[in-house]
Amino acid sequence: MVDPLALAAIGAGLAIGLSGIGSGIGVGIAGAAGAGVISERPEKFGTALVFQALPQTQAIYGLLIGILIMLGAGMLGGGAKELSEPLGWAALGAGLATGLAGLSAVGQGIVTSSGIGVTSEKPEMFGRGMVFSVLPETQAIYGLLVAILIMAGAGLFGGVPKEITMTMGLAAVGAGFSVGFAGFSAIGQGITAAGGVASIARRPETMGKNMVFSVMSETFAIFGLLGAVLILLGVKMLG
Amino acid sequence: MSALRAIRYAYINAKVRAMQSKLLGKKKLMELLEQTSLVAIANMLEDTEYSRILGNDLIEFEKRLRENIISAAEKIRLSMPSVGINFFNNFIKRYEIESIKTFIRGIYFGLRKDEILEMIPRQHHRFFDDVDGIEDVVTMFNLSPEYEEFKRTKNLYVIEHSLDNIYYKNLFMSIPKDENDLREILGREVDIKNIKMAIRYVLDGIREGFKPLPNGYELSPWVFEEIVSGGTLDRMVTSLEGTSYYTYVVDAISKYNEKRSMIPFEIKLDDFLYEKAYEIIIKVPFGLAPIVAYMYLKEFEVSNLRTIVKLKQENFSVEEIKEHLRGIA
Lengths: 239, 329
What we know:
The structure holds two protein chains of two kinds. By secondary structure, chain A is mainly α. Chain A has helices at residues 4-40, 45-53, 57-72, 85-101, 104-121, 126-134, 137-154, 166-182, 185-202, 207-216, 218-234. In chain A, helix 5 (104-121) packs parallel to helix 9 (185-202), helix 6 (126-134) packs antiparallel against helix 9 (185-202) and helix 7 runs antiparallel to helix 8 (166-182).
């Protein structure tokens, strides 16, 4: 028997910590590019800052889910709730989903750094650069979505937690791994999209084709999301 | 491209892109071309990186242009991540080699050291503190056999070629792993230098003794042997058939037939390198290749500026000057 509160605490920690690592690296890459640009063109500070803000969202999602897990487990506001062990595992699964998918910020950092460089040269590319830069965000959103589904299925959004079986609890961990690891596809997507941004700066007419290349990596993230949803449906945590 | 490369090069590649945004571009060059006086050109350059470098002295102008390139390269060098610094240090030695060539040419034509130094970028003056003649350069680069040949033939090319040889050998040895685009663009530069030199041999009727520079990308040394021993432009074209350079050389031949000058070949082949550099900038967001591509574009820009000013002074027409510009087609 593992202490369910400890499992929920680890889940909250993973959600905040892993997504923090992702965002830290992503924002760092984008920040380095921003520093490079403003060393030559100080007037581009604002644009660089907007791009740099994008990979921060993963950490915000992580923090959000982390706090929700802590609230659901009664760790905030005094007096922890009586959680069953399966609920503890479900909270861990929710944390894994958001935390691992939060590492997508690394990919987003790569594409935003390319966007920062390109818009310093061609300011009119801001919008298109933004479109490519938000692509690796989807993996983080999938992670957030699965975390919400797990928590809703387990009744961890406040109120009285549901009675779930051990199978359901461990299935939630599996769902978290599914969407979380598939979220790493954002790194590949970031690399492709960075090339796409560089390319459209010179040949704007290739936007569609470059978008197709960049979206390819999304397939694996969708597989991960699908896997997570099917796992949760399979153990009747949804619906 | 790996994520690690993006992390390493994010700063410098973004900085270089911002530097790229300060390049004049074709539109501005065309506007400069339309100006009727050097004063008007100087005024147009006021809001660019080349402000206040154009006076009445063309030699001083050329020197300042070279100083401008060296400053740009130095700016990049100072921000280069450790993984690329060894390569880039070797890359920018090309400007030092250019200064050394200016020096030995000056000595060869009987100029005094102080007169030659006036033509050499100030960043390189220190290099010549202990260099007073061709012998010192020969000792420094260990070129004794080449010097003996030079003394026998009085052909400076022997020494200049050896300097290039040393430069490219060191440069290619310092290319970091997985920089295939970089290897390609540098190899193409070598190919183009070799083709130009082989064409010179053909036009001058020299049939042997051609030693191509090492590390070409597409052309093997035997292609040049074939070109030079063939001895005619038609044979040269046949030897290049099926390579990327073929159409460019064929395009240049019709202009050569009109003007009987080497320049159309140089321009067309430089156009090819310009396009390749542009292509690298489009397809490679991170790494050393787009940085080298930027340096090529900068070199072409400086060469174009020099051409515009020089040919304006010599009263060439706009159309004639346009034919002498690189990367404009």
